[in-house]
Amino acid sequence: MKKIHINLDVTALNEYETVHTRVGELKNVLYHLLGYDKFVGFVSGKPSQIDALAAGAAAEKTFLTNMNNYGSSDPRTIQSKYELDHAIRKFENETNISWPIR
Q1: Per-residue pLDDT tens for 43-94?
Q2: Which residues contact 73 (CB under 8 A, 6 or more apart)?
Q3: For residue 100, which of 3, 15, 16, 33 has the smallest C-alpha distance?
Q4: Which of 8, 10, 56, 84 could make a disulfide contact with 49, Cβ separation 3.0–4.6 Å?
Q5: How far is residue 92's CA from residue 52's CA, in Å, rounded to a whole number?
């Protein structure tokens, strides 16, 4: 697999000039965190923003794993969906941007 180097400044996501490029970078980081490819990345920003990003990515991975393993009607999948929704709301409140994976 090809290694990708990504630098992401979460606080810069709120700047109008860079919002489109930064959201694209954030989407790449999340896809890589979910295991699609290996990458080297640096994420900077306020600690609360970084925590919200990490929690959202972890919740996304848990939900997708449960969906693949147990199906959409299993209680574990439903619970992980609620946790994902909570993590997404927290991320959006901390960074003022939309969660890039829908």
Answers
A1: 778 888 888 888 888 898 899 899 999 999 999 999 999 999 999 999 999 8
A2: none
A3: 33
A4: 10
A5: 9
Positive or negative torsion for Cα 64, 66, 72, 78: negative
pTM: 0.67
Classify the phi-psi angles of 71: left when phi > 0, otherwise alpha if psi is within -120 to 50, otherwise beta. Answer: left
Round to whole Å and give the CA distance between 58 and 35.
11
Which residues have C-beta within 8 Å of that of residue 87, sequence separation ≥ 6?
52, 55, 56, 58, 59, 60
